[in-house]
Amino acid sequence: MRVLGIETSCDETGVAVYDSEEGLLSHELYSQVKLHADYGGVVPELASRDHVRKIIPLIEKALDDANSSKTDIDGIAYTQGPGLVGALLVGSSVARALAFAWDKPTIGVHHMEGHLLAPMLEDPCPEFPFVALLVSGGHSMLVDVKGIGEYEVLGESIDDAAGEAFDKTAKLLGLDYPGGPHLAKLADEGEGGHYAFPRPMTDRPGLDFSFSGLKTFAANTIRASDGQRQTYANIAYAFQEAVVDTLMIKCRRALKQTGRKRLVISGGVSANKHLRAAMKKMLNDMGGQAFYPALNLCTDNGAMIAYAGCQRMAAGQTSSLSEVAKPRWSL
Ligand code: KG4
Ligand code: ZN
């Protein structure tokens, strides 16, 4: 089965072709980061308009690179939600229009299911069951994954998502949007032992997260500082260490609670090399194994949507052409 996947939930236009026998055949991505940089965040209306401009050429390129024409495609998967409504509407309208014109089935995919399954595109890939830590700009959650579509949310953020906390703290440090990767780079110049950031919600039971307090702590620390680059680097270091530590404590707890030995880390923040290294070591020490997507598939992309859609279609599921975009949609 060969599936065309389309992702337009936020500020990346992603298109890919995944084949159940041959794997990922092509993967095109256009990032709008530069378009939104001056505004310090994603401007929804600009995002929708740019998806409109980029989506058709990207589909043509993805099909070309996969040596495929419409006749080779068995179905079209698109991100149905959650995300920005205007952005979602572009991908879902194009997907459904192509499906109607080509007489192919469609499947609407949950964006976080895409992230959750992205590590399945790697070799080796995790076997079910596993615990997934999904940490992106919009969500932070721990999920017990028993199989495709069998997801139990164990915990989630009660306020800011992990990526959002990275972005907001980076902004306070004067770094460009999206700040996560810039903050991580600045932290590389920093050293530990200068600041004692809290590890929110780790002193009470449960698997929910809260990151807004860390951002406030960072804001107060920055305000009271001398504003020197080395000081900012030390603050970035301490902030990142606190996020990674907090996520590790919660993951250890989730693995213990479920008895799972495999941990999948996915979503934009899983590109953070300290988080990757810390989780890998923790799982090795526990006699388990950590899995994450390749760096270019941690953030939003069409490959994860094509993969998730292909699995759903292989299980006999399709969506009606009258399905609507779901800007709010729980996993
Ligand atoms: O999954 P994603 O592309 O979009 C959403 O679905 O939200 O995640 C984007 C988030 C942003 O908040 C970005 O700052 C963060 O992932 N991010 C990182 C790193 N790379 C991306 N955060 C920390 N360290 C990184 N290296
Ligand atoms: Zn995402």
Automatic annotation (TrEMBL):
Cofactor note: Binds 1 Fe(2+) ion per subunit.
Chain residues that bind substrate: L134, V135, S136, G137, G138, D167, G180, N272
Compartments, as annotated in UniProt: Cytoplasm
Keywords in alphabetical order: Acyltransferase, Cytoplasm, Iron, Metal-binding, Transferase, tRNA processing
Single GO molecular function: tRNA N(6)-L-threonylcarbamoyladenine synthase activity
Biological process terms in GO annotation: tRNA threonylcarbamoyladenosine modification
Name of protein: tRNA N6-adenosine threonylcarbamoyltransferase
